[in-house]
Amino acid sequence: MSRIGRQPITIPAGVTVNLEGDIVNVTGPKGSLSQAMLSGISLKQEGDVVTFERINDEAPTRGKHGLNRSLINNMVQGVSQGFSKQLELNGVGFRAALAGSNLNLNLGFSHPVKIPTGVTIVIEQNILTISGIDKQQVGQVAAEIRALKKPEPYKGKGFKYVGERIIRKSGKSGKESA
Predict the structure, then answer these.
(1) pLDDT per residue as tens digits for the range 1-12
(2) Confidence (pLDDT) at 163
Protein backbone atom coordinates (compact mmCIF):
# COMPACT_ATOMS: atom_id res chain seq x y z
CA MET A 1 0.00 0.00 0.00
CA SER A 2 1.26 3.46 -0.85
CA ARG A 3 2.37 5.40 2.22
CA ILE A 4 1.18 8.69 0.73
CA GLY A 5 -1.90 7.27 -0.98
CA ARG A 6 -3.40 5.71 2.13
CA GLN A 7 -3.26 8.93 4.17
CA PRO A 8 -6.69 10.59 4.39
CA ILE A 9 -7.22 14.23 3.42
CA THR A 10 -9.10 16.31 5.98
CA ILE A 11 -11.24 18.94 4.28
CA PRO A 12 -11.08 22.31 6.11
CA ALA A 13 -14.18 24.40 6.79
CA GLY A 14 -15.36 26.39 3.77
CA VAL A 15 -13.94 23.92 1.24
CA THR A 16 -16.09 21.51 -0.77
CA VAL A 17 -14.94 18.49 -2.79
CA ASN A 18 -17.27 17.14 -5.49
CA LEU A 19 -16.71 14.13 -7.75
CA GLU A 20 -18.53 14.38 -11.09
CA GLY A 21 -17.67 11.33 -13.20
CA ASP A 22 -13.87 11.30 -13.38
CA ILE A 23 -13.47 15.01 -12.55
CA VAL A 24 -12.80 16.22 -9.00
CA ASN A 25 -13.91 19.81 -8.33
CA VAL A 26 -12.55 21.58 -5.24
CA THR A 27 -14.06 24.93 -4.27
CA GLY A 28 -12.94 27.17 -1.44
CA PRO A 29 -12.64 30.79 -0.33
CA LYS A 30 -9.75 31.56 -2.74
CA GLY A 31 -11.28 29.98 -5.85
CA SER A 32 -11.98 26.63 -7.47
CA LEU A 33 -9.84 23.99 -9.19
CA SER A 34 -10.64 20.81 -11.08
CA GLN A 35 -8.56 17.71 -11.83
CA ALA A 36 -9.27 14.48 -13.67
CA MET A 37 -8.94 11.34 -11.55
CA LEU A 38 -6.27 8.94 -12.75
CA SER A 39 -7.48 5.56 -13.98
CA GLY A 40 -7.58 2.75 -11.44
CA ILE A 41 -8.04 5.02 -8.40
CA SER A 42 -11.34 5.68 -6.65
CA LEU A 43 -12.20 8.51 -4.27
CA LYS A 44 -14.40 8.06 -1.20
CA GLN A 45 -15.71 11.00 0.81
CA GLU A 46 -17.10 10.49 4.32
CA GLY A 47 -18.00 13.77 6.01
CA ASP A 48 -14.92 15.99 5.91
CA VAL A 49 -12.46 13.17 5.16
CA VAL A 50 -11.45 12.01 1.67
CA THR A 51 -9.67 8.68 1.12
CA PHE A 52 -8.31 7.01 -2.01
CA GLU A 53 -8.37 3.33 -2.93
CA ARG A 54 -6.91 1.53 -5.90
CA ILE A 55 -8.76 -1.07 -7.91
CA ASN A 56 -5.87 -3.56 -8.23
CA ASP A 57 -2.25 -4.04 -7.18
CA GLU A 58 -0.64 -3.75 -10.61
CA ALA A 59 2.47 -1.55 -10.85
CA PRO A 60 0.95 1.31 -12.92
CA THR A 61 -2.01 1.57 -10.55
CA ARG A 62 0.24 1.53 -7.47
CA GLY A 63 2.26 4.38 -8.97
CA LYS A 64 -0.85 6.52 -9.47
CA HIS A 65 -2.19 6.01 -5.94
CA GLY A 66 0.05 8.47 -4.10
CA LEU A 67 0.20 10.86 -7.05
CA ASN A 68 -3.58 11.24 -7.20
CA ARG A 69 -3.78 11.83 -3.44
CA SER A 70 -1.04 14.49 -3.62
CA LEU A 71 -2.72 16.30 -6.53
CA ILE A 72 -6.07 16.49 -4.71
CA ASN A 73 -4.38 17.49 -1.43
CA ASN A 74 -2.56 20.34 -3.24
CA MET A 75 -5.90 21.49 -4.67
CA VAL A 76 -7.47 21.54 -1.19
CA GLN A 77 -4.51 23.48 0.23
CA GLY A 78 -4.54 25.89 -2.72
CA VAL A 79 -8.21 26.90 -2.46
CA SER A 80 -7.99 27.27 1.33
CA GLN A 81 -4.51 28.80 1.93
CA GLY A 82 -2.85 29.33 -1.46
CA PHE A 83 0.77 28.86 -2.48
CA SER A 84 3.61 31.33 -2.91
CA LYS A 85 7.23 31.41 -4.04
CA GLN A 86 9.70 34.22 -3.48
CA LEU A 87 12.46 35.25 -5.86
CA GLU A 88 15.26 37.64 -4.97
CA LEU A 89 16.86 39.82 -7.65
CA ASN A 90 20.54 40.63 -7.09
CA GLY A 91 22.72 42.81 -9.28
CA VAL A 92 23.55 46.45 -9.89
CA GLY A 93 21.13 47.94 -12.41
CA PHE A 94 18.71 45.00 -12.33
CA ARG A 95 15.16 46.19 -11.60
CA ALA A 96 11.65 44.75 -11.61
CA ALA A 97 8.38 46.67 -11.87
CA LEU A 98 4.73 45.86 -12.51
CA ALA A 99 2.83 47.60 -15.31
CA GLY A 100 -0.73 46.29 -15.38
CA SER A 101 -0.56 42.62 -16.35
CA ASN A 102 3.06 42.85 -17.45
CA LEU A 103 6.20 42.41 -15.39
CA ASN A 104 8.92 44.77 -16.62
CA LEU A 105 12.40 43.49 -15.87
CA ASN A 106 15.58 45.44 -16.54
CA LEU A 107 18.06 42.59 -16.86
CA GLY A 108 20.20 43.78 -19.75
CA PHE A 109 17.48 43.20 -22.35
CA SER A 110 14.08 44.83 -22.68
CA HIS A 111 10.94 42.84 -23.24
CA PRO A 112 8.02 42.58 -20.81
CA VAL A 113 7.04 39.26 -19.25
CA LYS A 114 3.28 38.55 -19.43
CA ILE A 115 1.78 37.36 -16.13
CA PRO A 116 -0.63 34.42 -16.61
CA THR A 117 -4.13 34.60 -15.14
CA GLY A 118 -4.49 33.01 -11.72
CA VAL A 119 -1.09 34.21 -10.52
CA THR A 120 -0.36 37.46 -8.71
CA ILE A 121 3.06 39.04 -8.31
CA VAL A 122 3.97 41.52 -5.58
CA ILE A 123 7.29 43.35 -5.67
CA GLU A 124 8.90 44.68 -2.47
CA GLN A 125 12.35 46.21 -3.00
CA ASN A 126 14.22 43.38 -4.76
CA ILE A 127 11.95 40.46 -3.75
CA LEU A 128 9.20 39.15 -6.04
CA THR A 129 6.43 37.17 -4.34
CA ILE A 130 4.51 34.95 -6.77
CA SER A 131 1.26 33.57 -5.35
CA GLY A 132 -1.82 31.69 -6.53
CA ILE A 133 -4.04 28.70 -5.84
CA ASP A 134 -2.47 26.25 -8.32
CA LYS A 135 0.82 24.92 -6.95
CA GLN A 136 2.07 23.77 -10.35
CA GLN A 137 1.34 27.11 -12.00
CA VAL A 138 3.01 29.14 -9.23
CA GLY A 139 6.13 26.98 -9.44
CA GLN A 140 6.18 27.14 -13.25
CA VAL A 141 5.91 30.95 -13.35
CA ALA A 142 8.65 31.27 -10.71
CA ALA A 143 10.91 28.91 -12.69
CA GLU A 144 10.31 30.81 -15.95
CA ILE A 145 11.17 34.15 -14.33
CA ARG A 146 14.26 32.66 -12.70
CA ALA A 147 15.35 31.19 -16.05
CA LEU A 148 15.52 34.69 -17.55
CA LYS A 149 18.62 35.46 -15.47
CA LYS A 150 19.92 32.58 -13.35
CA PRO A 151 22.33 33.51 -10.55
CA GLU A 152 25.88 33.36 -11.82
CA PRO A 153 28.51 31.73 -9.57
CA TYR A 154 31.06 34.58 -9.49
CA LYS A 155 29.08 37.54 -8.16
CA GLY A 156 25.67 35.92 -7.54
CA LYS A 157 23.88 38.34 -9.88
CA GLY A 158 20.46 37.25 -11.14
CA PHE A 159 17.26 35.71 -9.77
CA LYS A 160 17.47 33.21 -6.92
CA TYR A 161 14.83 31.69 -4.68
CA VAL A 162 14.73 33.21 -1.20
CA GLY A 163 16.73 30.87 1.01
CA GLU A 164 18.60 29.30 -1.94
CA ARG A 165 22.34 29.01 -1.42
CA ILE A 166 24.46 29.86 -4.44
CA ILE A 167 27.84 28.14 -4.47
CA ARG A 168 30.35 30.85 -5.31
CA LYS A 169 33.52 30.39 -7.31
CA SER A 170 36.71 32.36 -6.87
CA GLY A 171 37.68 34.69 -9.71
CA LYS A 172 40.67 34.55 -12.06
CA SER A 173 43.18 35.59 -9.42
CA GLY A 174 42.34 32.54 -7.33
CA LYS A 175 41.40 34.61 -4.29
CA GLU A 176 38.43 33.54 -2.20
CA SER A 177 35.63 36.10 -2.38
CA ALA A 178 33.26 36.68 0.50
Answers:
(1) 578 989 999 999
(2) 92
51 with 4: CB under 8 angstroms?
A: no
SS (H, E, C) the chain: CCCCCCCCEECCCCCEEEEECCEEEEEECCEEEEEECCCCEEEEEECCEEEEEECCCCHHHHHHHHHHHHHHHHHHHHHHCCEEEEEEEECCCCEEEEECCEEEEECCCCCCEECCCCEEEEEECCEEEEEECCHHHHHHHHHHHHHHCCCCCCCCCEEEECCCCCCCCCCCCCCCCC
Distance (Å, rounded) from C-alpha 75 to C-alpha 82?
A: 9
- pTM of the entire predicted model: 0.86
Whether residue 66 is predicted with pLDDT greater than 80 in this model: the reply is yes
Residue 174 predicted with pLDDT over 60: no
- What are the Cα distances from residue 62, in Å, to 2, 5, 23, 44? 7, 9, 20, 17
Mean pLDDT over 83-102 rounds to 90
C-alpha–C-alpha distance, residues 41 and 55, integer Å: 6
